[in-house]
Amino acid sequence: VVQNQARFVEQAIAEVKESALHGAVLAVFVLLLFLRNWTVTLVIGLAIPISVLATFSLMYFENLTLNVMTLGGLALGAGMLVDNAIVVIENIYRHLEQGENAVVASAKGASEVGVAIMASTLTTVSVFLPIIYVQGLAGELFKEQAWTVAFSLLSSLIVAMTTVPMLTSKLLKKYKAKKASTDRGR
Question: In 54-166, where do the E strands start and end?
Fold first, then answer.
């Protein structure tokens, strides 16, 4: 064997995986630090792997392989997932503070910010998607990353608009009772 690139590729993929894992853990820690609520942090923490699995499914159907470029695109999309989920949860939380029950607050909260999140996500997708039409070596290098970023962003949008409200409606049911009891004491 004159030259073996397999070890370099394996090391690069292992580093990207490790960085993505550290990024997810750090994102959950920062959310806990700023939101100061374990339940909300848990909802976003559960939404991240669901979005990643959905992205893997879309990658499979597009015949994309796991490599440095696709894993890098996945890491970019995971950051946007956290952004979308935070916007949805913040609006749901606002409705809960106004005294609505968890199911109504989740439905209203997600629907009110749905158009804004969709516009934001589709704007970012529209930046990355034209890369798939680039010709030559640059197109070959970045095509898989562009597809992966687009898939992960679309997955994050779907998860933020469906899974996050569903989880908050189930996990934040007790919030109204706590808030109502503190309001009565005033």
Answer: none
Reading the chain (186 residues) residue by residue, the pLDDT tens digits are 777 778 877 887 787 778 777 877 887 788 788 877 788 888 888 888 888 888 888 888 988 887 777 777 777 777 777 888 889 988 998 898 888 888 999 999 999 999 999 999 999 899 888 888 888 888 887 888 888 888 888 988 999 999 999 999 888 776 644 554 455 444
Close Cβ partners of 3 (under 8 Å, ≥ 6 residues apart): none
Angstrom distance (rounded) from CA 79 to CA 120: 13
SS3 100: coil
What is the DSSP code (8-state) at residue 3?
Answer: -
Rounded distance, CA 50 to CA 166, Å? 13
Q: What's the rounded Cα separation, in Å, for the pair 76 and 178?
A: 37
Q: Are 153 and 80 in contact (CB under 8 A)?
A: yes
Candidates 12, 14, 47, 54; CA nearest to 28 is 47
For residue 41, give both structure tokens: 């942090």
This prediction's pTM: 0.78
CA-closest candidate to residue 157, choices 123, 107, 106, 108: 123
Amino acid at 69: M
